[in-house]
Amino acid sequence: MTLSYVCHGAAREVTGSCHLVECEGHRILVDCGMFQGDRDTEAANAEPFGFDPSSIDALLLTHAHLDHCGRIPRLVRQGFHGRILATSATRELVRVVLLDAASLQAEDAAHARRTDRNDVALAAPLYDLDDALHALDFFEPGIGYDQPIQVVPGIVARFLDAGHILGSASILLDVQVGEAHRSVVFSGDLGNPGRPLLRDPMPAPAADYVVMECTYGDRPHRSLPDSVQELFQAIRETARRHGNVVIPTFALERAQELLYYIHQGLRGGAIPAHVRVFLDSPMAISATEIFRRHPECFDRAFLDTLHHGDPFAMEGLHFTRSSSESMAINNIDGGAVILAGSGMCNGGRVRHHLKHNLWRERSSVVFVGYAADGTLARRIIDGAASVRVFNEDIPVRAQVWTINGFSAHADRPALLAWLGELPREQVLLVHGEYGRGMHSFAQILASRGRPPLMPQRGERITLL
Ligand code: ZN
After folding, report:
1. Which residues are near ligand 1, the ion (C-beta closer than 5 Å)?
2. Quick one: which of 201, 200, 321, 302 has its CA closest to 256?
3. 407 C-alpha to ligand 1 centroid (Å)
4. pTM to 2 decimals?
């Protein structure tokens, strides 16, 4: 056996991405993400990696989402001292994401100690701020798209635009073993084509093996133009009755996309001109600033629209970084659109805005992203009559909108289009819930004569 692959995270599940490629004594990792979800799922973050971190030569990072990069400081803490390669934009976003993750873990641990809960051990931080800063030292200067780069002798990597979030990439590995050659492509997370800010994902390159995500392998998404119109409608109707719109939002990509749509709506008259827009999330503000620094990642059409006005500097848009600015928003009676994190409302400033607006019939809460079971967002979406926010029962009287078409993940048709009709590869499915996206997508591939493998965590697959 000279070339093998082991999935150490996101095997038949959607978080914790971590893929190990071994070739003639070299070891390369693709992603090292955090497991996210219920307690059982997250407990895996504290378990051993399944390999010796100090034996890894290089880590290639597909993108800056926490479930792809969140365990890197822990990897470094446990002895990793190799190279870390990522695109320039990913490198900048990762800094914000890992520092935020370290401080959130410190907060959680302090909260567990204060409340004397018996899960103090479970809330123990995986790493601290120093670990996160130390991990950033291992990142090499940013890699450009489609530039071949030798990772170790015999293995060349190429980062290809995955169109998922700023800087996101699929990664193609060309491996030379003596006279033999094999290629393996890792999809990373794939975006939906036709989105406004980023380019469409580059189709899968010809490769012997394709390790691909299948999060939404079981369904098509709702159309984007319909979703945008519904967003405008929600803002318009709420403004008409002098209420506020609260949009719980994810900091990377979603916030920037929403600002773009709101800018379009204001420019075209679909949103009344007097509406004031607040981006009330320090992380989303940092991500937006990073976004503006990376026009090399923009879609051509977006570059053109920038000539008609900058959606991140539009009139009426306020970036509220300090907590006093954030609190001042609570005094606004109507006509405000407030974008705040977290997307699932289980933390962050959005909870303050929910506390001030959920009980008001005139206001609206607009959900534009995924809400896991057990989160505050899920309870509101499911129609709870009242919810608990900061130890207070708040009646839900605001209008609740759930708009599903803004997903940053490729749906089933887009996944199939990315894969194309290449004849010679073996597909390995990862990053999908086994009983949902993965199983359903596997059936489709099998019906087309390409039954995929669905590796289990830790299962070794020989590629050569
Ligand atoms: Zn992602």
Report:
1. 65, 189
2. 302
3. 11
4. 0.93
